[in-house]
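Example S7 (structure tokens).
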């Protein structure tokens, strides 16, 4: 959990799919210490994979042999030579040019990639094409030949041993949703299980029309295009936060901030990061509503903590007011237990980027429509999906 929180705080510094029924693609999402892992297969014959699902990056990469430097993982490393459909990408190809940070191998033939993340994690390796296979609502596996993946031979970071690499769901050309785009109509949705859930420990990531978020209680907000920023990120506009009945506006006369597209929604970051100028008044409003003595987080990552073994501390309701969408967050997802006797507000302050993290998204069905350029939210018990 400490590793996941470090990634959250540090991170702010930083094509030919098979035709399938667009409502059938579905895969499992498994919570893992503040991150979420997606289940899928790579290669022929298919090798099962668990990777961090990340709407804040693009590349799909896994740890591969031979490995110069890999972090520990429970499952065996992927062995490209055992896959009958694995093919290295040439450095003159359009696939190689579609990803930033690529270069030619020493012999001038193959495409080498280098990718780093905001928390100083990185992966270096070769870009390749292989068959990626997803599950479906009909229990039939659906293969996608010639999917661009990164085969990482030199990887480092505070990654958990349960996963291998990352599946990027961002807006860039090599992300999973971009590579599947024509098959899924630009739609996907997820419902993330809260950290403290008992019992069921997985939920679903849906693609295509099955990912449409509809019914009572649905609210939607526009995805904001920001030409000066990477197409990877899904920018939303956060207008205000409410603590109980107290509404705090993000724009006021003293900051002159342009708030349009002021926050990224990101499944790969654990806590929610708010602008420094705003966070202090937000934290104060939460503290005033809780009648307990505050304590310190020994790791100095989170600011507002309480020494208590109770989960119910009388925390106020918190609502995120996006443009056109008021999203009420459950107290279950706004506080995080760091130890048996330490409970902390799962929000922090950031100097540069603001991020709507995965804890705040828990128990919400979150749907992305990249054609209409909207993100929709629906309060949902994700353990029951």
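Recovered sequence:
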């Amino acid at each position: 959990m400490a590793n996941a929180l470090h990634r959250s705080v540090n991170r702010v510094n930083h094509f030919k799919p098979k035709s399938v029924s667009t409502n059938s693609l579905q895969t499992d999402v498994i919570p893992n210490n503040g991150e979420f892992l997606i289940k899928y297969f790579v290669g022929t014959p298919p090798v099962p994979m668990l990777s961090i699902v990340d709407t804040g990056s693009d590349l799909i990469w896994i740890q591969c042999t031979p490995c110069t430097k890999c972090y520990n993982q429970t499952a065996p490393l992927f062995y490209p030579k055992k896959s009958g459909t694995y093919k290295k990408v040439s450095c003159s190809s359009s696939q190689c040019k579609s990803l930033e940070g690529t270069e030619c191998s020493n012999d001038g033939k193959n495409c080498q990639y280098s990718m780093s993340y905001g928390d100083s994690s990185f992966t270096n390796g070769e870009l390749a094409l292989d068959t990626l296979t997803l599950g479906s609502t009909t229990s039939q596996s659906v293969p996608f030949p010639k999917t661009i993946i990164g085969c990482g031979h030199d990887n480092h970071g505070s990654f958990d041993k349960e996963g291998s690499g990352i599946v990027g769901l961002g807006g860039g050309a090599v992300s999973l949703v971009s590579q599947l785009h024509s098959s899924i109509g630009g739609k996907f949705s997820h419902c993330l299980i809260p950290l403290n859930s008992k019992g069921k420990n997985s939920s679903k990531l849906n693609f295509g029309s099955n990912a449409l978020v509809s019914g009572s209680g649905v609210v939607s907000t526009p995805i904001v295009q920001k030409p000066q920023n990477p197409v990877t990120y899904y920018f939303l506009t956060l207008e205000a936060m409410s603590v109980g009945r107290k509404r705090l506006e993000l724009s006021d006369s003293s900051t002159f901030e342009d708030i349009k597209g002021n926050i990224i929604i990101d499944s790969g970051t654990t806590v929610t990061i708010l602008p420094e100028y705003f966070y202090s008044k937000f934290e104060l409003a939460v503290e005033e509503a809780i009648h307990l003595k505050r304590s310190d987080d020994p790791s100095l990552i989170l600011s507002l903590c309480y020494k208590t073994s109770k989960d119910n501390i009388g925390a106020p309701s918190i609502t995120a007011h996006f443009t056109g969408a008021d999203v009420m967050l459950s107290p279950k997802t706004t506080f995080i237990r760091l130890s048996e006797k330490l409970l902390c507000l799962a929000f922090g302050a950031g100097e540069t980027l603001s991020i709507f993290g995965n804890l705040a998204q828990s128990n919400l069905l979150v749907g992305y429509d990249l054609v209409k350029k909207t993100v929709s939210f629906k309060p949902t018990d994700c353990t029951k999906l």
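Notes on this example. DSSP finds seven helices and 28 strands in the chain.
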